[in-house]
Specification:
- The chain is of the alpha/beta class.
- 42% of the residues lie in helices and 11% in strands.
- Mean pLDDT is 82; it is low at 30-37 and 229-242.
């Protein structure tokens, strides 16, 4: 008896021709419930579920005019992409600048339109891939990897912070290269700059024929909250701020 974790059609030719010989083998396909691969928010994404375009404030306090204009343009790019996901959209910027909110808002917009989308936090995705090698895993490596590679719309959040090992770089390159060649709609958020990302990957992210790269130049939104809190405290209304 042979148990395969991928369809017989995807096996190497020498193996496939023998396993499909009707005089030798009987093939039975066992369907497995793939709840983890459904296009919906998982329980770990409660925060992202609330990140909609309506709740994104590009008119942030304490921003310079050019920063506010930059953030508004990022908002417009994300909204246009959500309405018609084509090509790639890459948001670069510091932590807290709003790039994850915009990426999640795209996914929420697609879900409201009953369209498929998949939001992946890259470090978590790599951890999940590693965990599929354990006997306790309820989903196979191939199922998880293929679902990410082939998602009609994929968000890769927090890209580039975890690609220090050869294994991680290889897995991320495989995803990026596959989606690049297949021209599948993709949104990527990353800190730093493209220069800090492995060159075989960054060369695809920077291709102007498929990708729009937008560097969000505003600071962490929490600095706005801190400034607002100080102003309210000085005004005699300690403890009430937004």
């Amino acid at each position: 008896m042979i148990v395969a974790i991928i369809p017989v059609e995807q096996l190497e030719d020498r193996i496939r021709t023998r396993l499909t010989d009707p005089n030798l083998c009987h093939i039975y396909a066992v369907e497995e419930k793939q709840a983890l691969l459904e296009y919906s928010w998982g329980p770990e994404f409660e925060l992202q579920k609330s990140m909609t375009f309506d709740k994104f404030d590009w008119r942030r306090v304490n921003l310079l005019p050019e920063q506010r204009q930059n953030l508004e343009q990022a908002f417009r790019l994300a909204l246009d992409f959500a309405k018609s996901p084509e090509g790639w959209l890459v948001f670069m910027g510091v932590t807290g600048c709003g790039k994850t909110h915009l990426a999640a808002a795209i996914v929420n917009y697609r879900y409201q339109a009953n369209q498929p989308a998949l939001f992946v936090v890259v470090p978590d995705f790599l951890d999940h891939l590693r965990s599929t090698f354990t006997p306790e895993s309820k989903v196979s490596y191939d199922q998880l990897f293929e679902s990410v590679k082939n998602a009609p719309l994929l968000v890769l959040d927090d890209f580039g912070e975890q690609s220090t090992t050869p294994w991680a770089r290889e897995k991320l390159y495989q995803v990026i290269n596959y989606r690049y060649n297949a021209r599948l709609a993709t949104v990527i958020t990353a800190r730093g700059s493209l220069d800090e990302i492995d060159s075989p990957i960054s060369s695809r992210l920077a291709d102007p024929k498929i990708t729009v790269v937008w560097n969000i130049i505003v600071p962490d939104y929490r600095t706005d909250a801190t400034a607002s809190r100080k102003k309210i405290t000085r005004g005699g209304r300690k403890g009430r701020w937004s």
